[in-house]
Amino acid sequence: MLNVALPKGRLGEKAYSIMAQAGYECPSLLEPNRKLTFENPETGVRYFWAKPSDVPIYVERGVADVGIAGKDILLEYEPEVYELLDLNIGKCRMCVAGPADFRDDQSRTLRVATKFPHIAKTYYSARGRDISIIKLNGSIEIAPILGLSDVIVDIVETGSTLLENDLAPLQEIFPISARFIANTVSYKFQYQEIRTMAEKLAALV
Asked: How many CB atoms lie within 10 A of CB 38?
């Protein structure tokens, strides 16, 4: 039986829908209950929900054989997992955003608020820009509004929240979508099962 980590929320619901279409349905997962794991011996899968940023950790540590995680999470934490397939769901962008009229003053350190410090550091380091990271966990958009930061590095889906707060995307760092990932050891010892699952998912993407 393959253990599958799904991200909680809208992305996870979309991910499970694709899994079910691929022949890995698990009816108990959709029932209103407080269970933490859901399995279907007939299709050979056991599902569990996880916080999106935790999915790669469960997969990397082998608690889950496979999972579905956003490209943003994979680039931020760089877990040792195999990325097998782009599912083309949960599409959005990682962007630098700030006031629409923002002009970068190269003579001083740029203050960057973000939930993704590794991504922000990597992006600006490649451009030789000196920055000061302000790690936040809540609503990032408020940071430049209140003067805490000059810009933010964050996920942009529609851009409506930015627009409503007189902010705008300034640079796109990379596009984001959900990826089907596998544990490196599981991929070796359950190769056929995981490859079959990946191929069935690929046929639907």
From this structure: 20
Write the pLDDT tens digit of every residue in 6-31: 999 999 999 999 999 999 999 988 88
CA-based Rg of the chain, rounded to a whole angstrom?
19
Beta strands in 41-166 (DSSP E): 45-50, 66-70, 81-86, 92-99, 110-114, 131-135, 151-156
- Please, which pLDDT band fits residue 158 given cuts at 50, 70 and 90? confident
Tell me how far CA of residue 161 lies from CA of 58, 140, 143, 150, in angstroms.
32, 11, 13, 17
The pTM (predicted TM-score) of the whole model is: 0.91
Structure tokens at 164: 């409503």
Specify the DSSP class assigned to residue 109. P
At a CB cut-off of 8 Å and minimum separation 6, what does 39 contact?
1, 26, 28, 45, 46, 47
**What gap in Å lies between CA 22 and CA 53, rounded to an integer?**
25
Q: How far apart are CA 97 and CA 154, in angstroms?
A: 7
Tokens 């195999």 appear where? 82
